Amino acid sequence: PATLRRNFRMSATKKAVIQNMELLIIDEVSMLRADMMDAIDFMLQNTRKKKVPYGGVQVLFIGDLLQLPPVIRDDEWQILRKYYSGKFFFHSHRIQQSPPLYVELSKIFRQSDERFISILNNLRNNTITQNDVLVLNEFVNPSFDLKANKGYITLTTHNIKADAINQKALVELQGKPHFYKAEIVGDFPEKIYPLDENLELKVGAQVMFIKNDPSFDKNYFNGKMGIIKSLAPKEILIYFADENKTIEVEKHEWENIKYVVNPNTKEIEEENLGTFTHYPIKLAWAITVHKSQGLTFDKAALDVSQVFLPGQAYVALSRLRSLEGLVLLSPLQMNGISNDDDVMKYAQNKASDAILKTTLKSDTNLFIQNYLKQSFNWEETVQEWRNLKYSFIDSDRSEKSKHSQWASTQYQNMNILLEPATKFIHQLDKLFNNDEIDFTHINDRIQAAFNYFFIKLDDVCYQILFKLEEVKRSKQAIQFYDELVLLDDQQVKLVLRLLKAKK
After folding, report:
1. 3-state SS, one letter per residue, for 163-178
2. Statement: residue 425 has pLDDT above 90
């Protein structure tokens, strides 16, 4: 923690986003390292100044734990093993201390072949049989010719192999190469390019779309394969053999989004820093298993002879809709394809339907209770007013000293609300501790409390605005102006939260 606090720098804008967010979604959680999980928890607590899990933010983890694992180098693990029993996110101290509710979506949409589904489930659960391997190895074809079999994509384990296959296939195509360059506007760092800046294509090249079609026609989706039919400086035509259909590809614009907090509404908004515009396609005779995660293919040739991570064989096989589109370039071996034992053990924690039902009800009530209590807890803001009031002791002769009485008055106006607000919080606790919670009565009490407190809190907001207008004209009171801006931020946030609680 000390190292993180010392070396991690965060802009005021990013801090504001983190301080105002209510839900954090982490996707592809199977690849999240334990130390990164703890770092996220620490920074959330530190930035939000709340010593509770994730700084009080709700966190939703999404992903299939039996897919690709975290990447940790051997030298890194030699250090981390002193602090963690494993590398997965659930080995983190935060998850160990505050385990999330494990919900598993079990309905399969990609496959409908029961035999294939059974094999995939056995592979997931480390119960794959010799018969399963025999069935899969019926599809082995080491001499499979990609050129003669259009529409197949090779899934391989390493980037260098995928790049080599794509480059070789492109060179072997007859015809003139065409080059297309991305249009980059504003701030769009190379490290977040969605595809290569320069795209080399030939007629007959096999390509894959990397985005869903945003138009009404929905001609393509992320992972859909096609063949280049025609190329011109400002036109690319792609043919879909399975549909006997040709479409013109439009360029797609990616945005580099920065999240900022609106100073007036305190809502999180998007700010576009730059754009990357290019055709949403890439050469696709081959891609890595890693890049295929999340995609679906009708036909694929799998090169998994060098599987080096648990879950790679499962990810590769489960990209296919059915066994009919499967080609194995080498026989599948029993060794090296099993999933991590720690993952298998953790996967047993999934909640039953009965637990989900009762937990949903109790946790929903607890969330509402805590949110309402926090909406009437203004001690932190009152402390800031107290700090401002006593800061005038050392400013007797400064320009700031002229505003001492005003600050003292606002502090008193806020401080006098603490006692009734605290009493109301105790009332809420009693109402929520009943066996049957009467939300109609609670809503009535919230409305009454809102009517009492809101006008007083809102008046302080206006007092700050008036004072800001007055002070900003004085060059000798710049520090006081900055202090007022911070107080205004807290006061407005407090009022907006109260408005939300009333709803």
Report:
1. HHHHHHHHHHCCCCCE
2. yes
